[in-house]
Amino acid sequence: MNHKIKTLLAIFLISGSYSFAQSDDKIIEDFEPSSVNQPGHEYPMVNSEGRVRTQIFAPDANYVKLDIGGVKYDLVKNEEGMWIGESAPQDVGFHYYQLNIDGASVPDPGTLFYFGACRWGSGIEIPSDDQDIFAVKNVPHGHVHEILFPSESTQTSRKAFVYTPPGYEKETSKHYPVLYLQHGYCENETSWARQGHANLIMDNLIAEGKAKPFIIVMTYGMTNEIEFGGLREFDITPFQTVLVDELIPYIDSNYRTLKNQENRAMAGLSMGGFETKLITLNRPDVFSYYGLFSGGVYNPEEIKNHKNLKLVFISCGSKERPDGVKNAVSELQEAGYNAESYISEGTAHEFHTWRRSLHQLAQLLFK
Amino acid sequence: MNHKIKTLLAIFLISGSYSFAQSDDKIIEDFEPSSVNQPGHEYPMVNSEGRVRTQIFAPDANYVKLDIGGVKYDLVKNEEGMWIGESAPQDVGFHYYQLNIDGASVPDPGTLFYFGACRWGSGIEIPSDDQDIFAVKNVPHGHVHEILFPSESTQTSRKAFVYTPPGYEKETSKHYPVLYLQHGYCENETSWARQGHANLIMDNLIAEGKAKPFIIVMTYGMTNEIEFGGLREFDITPFQTVLVDELIPYIDSNYRTLKNQENRAMAGLSMGGFETKLITLNRPDVFSYYGLFSGGVYNPEEIKNHKNLKLVFISCGSKERPDGVKNAVSELQEAGYNAESYISEGTAHEFHTWRRSLHQLAQLLFK
What we know:
2 copies of one chain form a homodimer. Chain A has 2 domains: 24-127, Immunoglobulin-like, CATH 2.60.40; 133-362, Rossmann fold, CATH 3.40.50.1820. In chain A, 21% of the residues lie in helices and 28% in strands. The first copy, chain A, contains 6 helices and 19 strands. Chain A has helices at residues 2-12, 198-207, 237-254, 271-282, 322-334, 351-362; strands at residues 32-33, 45-46, 52-57, 64-68, 71-74, 76-77, 82-86, 93-101, 104-106, 113-116, 119-126, 143-151, 156-164, 178-182, 215-219, 264-269, 289-293, 311-317, 339-344. In chain A, helix 2 (198-207) packs parallel to helix 6 (351-362). The longest helix of chain A has 18 residues, at 237-254. The two termini of chain A are 42 Å apart. The relative contact order of chain A is 0.12. Chains A and B meet through strand 9, strand 11 and strand 12 of A and strand 9, strand 11 and strand 12 of B. Strand 12 (143-151) of chain A pairs antiparallel with strand 12 of chain B, so a sheet runs across the interface.
């Protein structure tokens, strides 16, 4: 698994310039509890620099480390047996992390748990200027349905989450467009609604009149078993069959959707962008809006026969390959396509880049 | 917190006769991975005796313990730095547990995480003869909606989960009865659908024609802040307001419900049973079916003015106070009430008792 993750990082993750906390760094003492802590837990905390401070009671441990952003930071034991310490400043947004106690990698019991890095484990939220986009506000809220849909090709009942916009249950004659939205490698079908807050982003945009109400469908992209060294031989067929031939018909038959290409979008982050690209190229008859978040680009030649294509949206963090994204979109625009780029300022290959990307894309869809 | 939990146990939990694994116990070597492990994880495992065996890599630890059922079992380190060991046999069904590494209580990173014991932490499933009641089968599946409903009394948007039976989205003219179903102390609104599998129990019963399709609503009972020493002074009013005056109107306005007392039930486990009793006594005009799972009893005098009461269902595990439940139900029956008791064989104050209780109650509701 570790090898896979490293290879993944080599392929998808670009930047990540980590500044180590030096012993003479002055730490600003304005720490507050992370917004994604377990109920009643004060730690972990975050300060205005984006440093993470955590603590754990481990009176008989030889050492405890905070393992975040690819760096392990030593915690220090106090007289009561509590280990405490902090990381260097982290980028704004959401990060997966863990503790290491005498060599054991374990979740920090202070936090809620998220599926990322191929495991259910700890997460932390570094406040950002624009976190308001996914705040729980006093606006009408959509619902997130957990569903099991039948899949003949895999002989399983498969899980998906379906966001229905505010009013869906009441306005029983209205039909809606649908965005199929994919997570990244080492994430799963829960990631977009939990750490991505796709539902809250939509609730807020709809309340502000900035997005058309639409349904979002999030399922497991069958990505986590992929050997990344073998990406070129990656076979999209099994997932394409599940998505296009099984899930879409289930959604169209169980939800009040607009059942045509013009009202169907697909987007994904990282590996999910790669899947979006492969599926839209293989099946140019299914979706009219394509979104790649930190997940590659299209060139004009690849999509020249896509007659019902209405929008190509490509994004990444400013700490990834922003020039690659901007150049690709310029080329598409010059070739006459409706293409948009978006660069998330100050973020890398992590979920805040993708929350912002969804926030941008949602305002362009189905208009 | 520990004090609260101990007091809770003193009040609600009765039996629990734990047999310690002796060094000369012969352990049956037929361990298999627990069904609620993280993807790709072999450990923890369970054998046919119900013993739990787990392992964790902690090369520099001084000791590691498996903490389950109120007992801490020592694990033993092998040459590679892996700690491994097992518990005494556990009751069938679902148990919360944790690891202890050099004094630090942490989740076992091998398992999925559940909210119980007032924390998100590890869970394990000991196979039972009747686990088929919540198996994922090739039958039509209902959906579990995560919703946010507005609560004026608490000035918050509050979370709830809503199970809609198979076909709900399609049969848009049909209206359904509703069961309001409460978790226990130190659990939350996620517990009934995750470790309780309320949705799968219903899907299977409906497919077999054994239960009428109905909606289930599960929200947070505001219980976990209660000081259990102060149970007699426990004020149900805040939660009663949220449930009866805010959540029910939201559900009735957003879902296709049958909006009357005859088509409304309330049930709860442990502390949720206590809440069910208090709310149904305070508001005899709201529900027609009452269910207490390991959560107290009604006496005939208490409900003598409940004109629209159709059923009282009271249950517990055989390792709790089965005689108390049976006697209370006999008294109710003698007084002319439609009352049913159910005793879960071989289980104590844990979720398998409550899954089975729901399985029984669901077959009696709204008929």
